[in-house]
Amino acid sequence: MPNNAATAAARLSCAPMMDWTDRHCRYLHRCLSRRALLYTEMVTAPALVRGGAVHLLEYGPEEHPVALQLGGSDPAELAQAARLGAQAGYDEINLNVGCPSDRVQSGTFGAVLMTDPGLVAACCAAMRDAVDVEITVKCRIGVDDQDPEYVLPEFLARIVAAGVERVSIHARKAWLQGLSPKENRDVPPLDYDLVHRMKQLFPNLHISVNGGIETLDEACARLEGGLDGVMIGRAAYHRPVDILGSADRRIFGLDVPDRTAEDAVVAMLPYIEAHLAKGGKLHQVTRHMLGLFAGRPGARAWRRNLSENVTRPGAGPELVEEALQEVTGAMV
User: Fold this and answer.
1) Of the residues 14, 25, 31, 99, which is catalytic?
2) Structural domains in the chain, sorted by start
3) pLDDT of 276 above 90
């Protein structure tokens, strides 16, 4: 796909989430939306460059448009990791400047980089010089005792000067001292208004907002309010049909029928069969499918069926078909 495919798709994106947005999750999400931008889990530059873990870059061609998120803080190492990502065919390379985990802090990347915008700019410039694929940033509005009103405009100005044209802003601070990574997803207050003000300050910068957005209605409201994109994480994972099933029509304006949970299950069956044929485990795929019927009668039975029986000897696509029949009363 052309390099601008990711920018067009960034009108709605599924946030990168460790342990969640692996290739099986992304395939499921692509069954529901052909247009939304999908992100990998964060892959660290040291793992790719020093550890040779290029298997972490594997994905299916059906996932396009798909973005690789990198973690790191060494410009030369990130440039080499970006080259590997570009060679693998990703539509975008994203730098993580938002993750608050202790593991990430100790590696001097993630949200702690908000305190060193000059280093972030150097990392972005090095990656831009290394590849033709678009380089983007995902950040917070600030960390710890920083005043976002002052630090966020300076941070954005530095990365824009380094050639970044697209950014996703998690509209919360990250508290690196005193809050766990889980608490950092909920406790710091959201400041969507600040993100909207950044769009006014940087009209040529493509800005997506992230954090706390639970519905497609909310996403539409943010877009109508002047932002360029909306990035949704946990809601897209736990209630994928609600967020993605009608996204191609409502967000991207396509004249296509909405996708249902049943559509997704049917589309996943051959994928599951192929995964098992290659020696994969059923639960590696079905764990991402538990939320397909969220909010519908039978959702609990669906989750229970898949959770309790997935390790049954010989379990395969027929288990998923059985669970679907219990929910809908219809066989595939």
Assistant:
1) 99
2) 5-250 (3.20.20.70), 261-328 (1.20.120.1460)
3) yes
